[in-house]
Amino acid sequence: MTRIWKHRLFWPIASLLGLIVINSVARPQFLSITMRDGELYGALINILRNSAPLMLVALGMTIVIATRGIDLSVGAVMAVSGAVALTVIDNAADPDNLGTVLGAVGLAVLVSLALGAWNGFLVAVLGIQPIIATLVLMLAGRGVALLITGGFITTVNSAPFSYIASGYLTVLPFAFFISVAAITLIALVERRTALGVLTEAVGINPEASRLAGVRARGIIWGAYIVSGVLAGVAGVIYASNIRAADANAAGLFIELYAILAVVLGGTSLMGGKFSIAGTVVGVLIIQTLESTILFLGVPSAQSPVFFAIVVVIVVMLQSSRVRRGFARLARLRQRRAPDGGPPPDVDPDLEPKRTEVAA
Amino acid sequence: MPATTPPLAPARDELPPIVEMRGITVRFPGVLALDGVDFFLRPGEVHALMGENGAGKSTLIKALTGVYSIDAGTITIAGEERVFSSTADAQAAGISTVYQEVNLCPNLSVGENIMLGREVRRGGVIDWRATHAEAQKHLRALSLEIDPRSLLSAHPIAIQQVVAISRAMVLESKVLILDEPTSSLDRDEVDRLFAVVRDLRAAGVAILFVSHFIEQVYEISDRITVLRNGALVGEYRVEDLPRDALVTKMIGRELDDLEALSRTAHRQIDRSGVPVLRAEGIGRRGMLEPADLEVYPGEVVGLAGLLGSGRTELVRLLYGADRPDAGHVSVHGEHARITSPRHAIDHRISFSSEDRRAEGIVADLTVAENIVLGIQARRGWTRKIRKSEQDALVNEYIRALDVRPAAPDAVVANLSGGNQQKVLLARWLATAPELLVLDEPTRGIDVGAKADIQRKVSELSARGLAVVFISSELEEVLRLAQRIAVLRDRRKIGEVDSSEIDLDGLIDYLANEGKGDAA
Predict the structure, then answer these.
(1) Tell me, what's the ipTM?
(2) CB contact under 8 A, B362 and A273
(3) Where is pLDDT greater, at A346 or B298?
């Protein structure tokens, strides 16, 4: 029992399950999944579909954070990527041609790779602090995207392009398969090769890694490139979903949600040890929370506050210091109460959980 | 404060101890760091704590300052039994520590550092003018005339240490711990520091002094407590303990064991062939004057010199950890361009840094991951070492070097210093180097691990490995090395054959050789 408690993914998964339980109690149809025309629909399916852009961005962010870095430019890269893809399709003779769409997506991802490489160059080669280096592109990127679309919100009508975000592959949304493919690819590359452990070594102790002969520069550079590419794909999914390139709205604040997902998943912002599975759970928590807000009918003006409160609770649940603090508080209260205190065999660790769920 | 309190010197033996530590026991996983040690510190005395690296000096200090919690024993401060759970507790009880590496804030001003948390306030706002004036007063009390508004980092270490002492005085400390304060000071700076220490002693402050320099201990101390292997050897008045008796008490019986080691180490080296490494005029401005060094197969070359003499700088330049701006290196007779650690590793040179924590271990990774890091880096990320291969390798080294606990999956941060050092040695040996550079591999580790590491180095060199060995403990250098290169003031001043020189001779060489023509 205690061992399950101490697992690093215990609290993230518990939070996710908690959110799902709250939803299904509030509205039982939350859990229902229906089959229509051989395709599955339901709130849970929507969560899997809608989480794809954040999932991709958060995966990249995980790798960057593991190197002690941070990538603030992901939202801007999404905007650029969408703008590139849409502009190519818009200018093509036949927007419904599969080849046109593939070419457009390919170019968008290639441009994103270049932007990631630029970030990596600033950080790994020039030694600029990651937060500043990526801030440059975060601020400039949307301007570049506007430049590409000529200042307009480019819209297209292209069936193959819409398929990326809205289509179904067998019974599940295609976007979900993109998520799964990215998770699998990243997990395999990081854990089956030595890249993961070398990334962690660089993140934990860059100087010791350098002296041990680790090519830290290449590893850090690579992390930003991966982050750029994944953000590019996320940008394509986003643009496909709204069938438009909106340079101002695409991926707005997604860097913050991605960082939040990484932290919720138990990866420290100090770099080093990272958890892909943790990030996946973190993304699902955020996406479920967004559905919860819709489902519970929280007025839109209050939804950011609601979101923030839940996030604070989840983060506090995960902090061992906060848990210890509550335990100490509970013991103190016991001691202060001369005879009417709670029975001493109550596990003080359970106290905070009860009060917080009530909140 | 020093001016008003009458000197207590005559009566100080009669004064009850301000610090009484009785039966102090501290355990780390697999290591008994302190075993029932008693220690007493009286007001107005300078009390030296002596012992080899790993004897338990720093553990005792950390137990006293609340860094470590004790597993058994009692700490009584001024007659009151205390349990410190943090350094803040100890500081509140009047115990201040000045470390070798000054633990102040280099980017704050001298005055801010001294008065931190005790700033003069007026209406809730800090009055900086008054605060700095107050700081100046404290500095003057220690006869230090510097501008309290100047940045701390602008001053040399010696001044920073006096600033740290000033800070201790602001906190009204009754007990001052000086942990290796003189290791990076020159003679004049030591004199200045000792003048301050004598003033404080006269003012009734109890001073605990730790130093590797035996001469300085005899110069300033009233009393000496000797620790060995985590246990108390005894407490002595300085006049009752001649120097050779002190050294014997510090080293104890392990002397015989290591003596045998030194006999095997002192064999003839064939220097007729091609050296593994030959460096000619290697140097870097501001770091090291151009120096030559040759290392032959099977040879251990010791580098002797004080901290800051250039010994670490020399090996860092050889390894490419820092870029040399002069000189020429050849490996096995062929010109080699080594400007990064990767180049050095490609030439089968390995380097273990003196700073185990910052430049050695990767703390959050496991023992196994730390050991294979060197090989893995060499292979590149695409060719991951197979699990079976890794297990075999890791188990072999854990056994060969007696790493404790013998758990490949233990997080390396939880190991003792000695075992971390063994893990690092394993990392480098696993890469099958032809030249192994060890910078202070035995610093701050327990006696057993220290002997293990020395034995391993001796054994490997006998089998043909070329080694460059740096240690602050000249005995170690003399014991292991066949040839010793001596450095001083960022310059190599010469080489000696270790069979033709003894410890006193080496110290004399270190201190005086070439002084005449330098002037």
Answers:
(1) 0.83
(2) no
(3) B298
